[in-house]
Design a protein that fits this description.
Length: about 325
């Protein structure tokens, strides 16, 4: 009995020492630890990540706080999201920032019950994604920023630039939680406004070329929602659309920079900066449960002059 007790005591001491060691990097020097997880590396998510890092650093420097920031990309792989977030928890991070919907959903699963707050960035529909109860009152340890997509504004621009385009091909990835609600909204818009449409769904990036080629056979123009997988393959999409001399309207400025014809959307550097400010507020004691999700509305028209010239569309009034 005594022996057992001694053994148990040893085990407890060993555990305490282990816990003490693994927690000491953060606890003993008082430094704040932040983990940033980005879903994949594409133009827009790279831009957001840089803005989050810059604003976090400048705000925390200004407050004289010691901190470390660990940024990881999941390369579009769900099991990597899980592994990265599990490591963040083991490292004793004080807060996680997750960029794009799949990263935020994966992080939420891993962080559940740990008490570690999660700030998401660029999640198009946080309620649909199951991250918050409502935009105004998130209700838990999760809040963040949203890039809600102005479908009707994008389509108003399309009507102005290419009024003859009436049959749209919708190119998106079926497993992208941010595209699905936008596709639904776009279809409703097409139905209600005298357009027809055809869906071109891809399972992953390797399908993109064939699917876009098929859409271009029947359709006058392509519409792309806020889709990470397609955004990552914009070079191919743009090449095919230029070869077919057909316009491609997209849901983010980065996809215009990467060869799309035009978009109406938010500035993702502003969105990243705002995300970092929310994270700093939470580190300073604000409660994410009552911090409303910030939905950006600074929508700007962006056009790609080279693409426009290549397909013979006049975008001069927006260039
Ligand atoms: N809104 C996307 C999501 O919820 C992420 C995103 C941000 C994105 N910028 C983009 C996707 C540009 C495609 C293109 O996951």
């Amino acid at each position: 009995m005594k022996k057992l007790f001694a053994l148990a005591l040893c085990a407890v001491f060993a555990l305490m020492m282990f816990a003490g060691c693994s927690g000491s990097a953060g606890a003993s020097d008082g430094a704040v630890k932040i983990g940033i997880i980005k879903y994949m590396d594409h133009t827009s998510l790279d831009e957001i990540t840089a803005a989050v890092e810059n604003t976090l650093s400048s705000e925390l420097d200004e407050q004289g706080v010691e901190y470390s920031i660990d940024t990881k990309s999941a390369n579009g792989d769900p099991s990597t999201i899980n592994a990265i977030c599990t490591q963040f928890v083991a490292d004793g991070v004080d807060l996680v920032v997750a960029i794009a919907t799949p990263a935020a959903q994966g992080a939420a699963t891993v962080l559940e019950g740990t008490g570690i707050p999660l700030v998401f960035s660029a999640v198009t529909d946080p309620v649909d994604a199951g991250l918050v109860d409502s935009l105004d009152a998130p209700g838990g340890s999760i809040t963040g920023t949203s890039d809600a997509i102005p479908v009707s504004q994008i389509m108003d621009l399309a009507a102005e630039l290419t009024p003859d385009a009436k049959n749209f091909g919708i190119l998106y990835c079926t497993s992208e939680p941010s595209s699905v609600p936008v596709v639904t909204e776009a279809k409703e818009f097409f139905d209600a406004n005298g357009y027809t449409c055809e869906e071109g769904a891809v399972a992953d990036e390797t399908d993109v070329q064939t699917v876009v080629q098929n859409l271009l056979k029947d359709c006058d123009a392509i519409f792309i929602p806020i889709d990470n997988t397609v955004a990552n393959a914009m070079a191919i999409v743009s090449e095919e659309c230029i070869a077919a001399k057909k316009p491609v309207y997209v849901a983010a400025d980065s996809m215009v920079r990467d060869g799309g014809l035009a978009s109406v959307g938010v500035n993702y550097t502003n969105l990243g900066n705002l995300t970092a400010e929310m994270a700093v507020d939470i580190l300073n004691g604000s409660d994410p449960a009552t911090m409303a999700v910030q939905v950006l509305t600074d929508n700007n028209i962006v056009v790609n002059e080279e693409t426009a010239a290549a397909i013979g569309v006049d975008v001069s009034q927006y260039a």
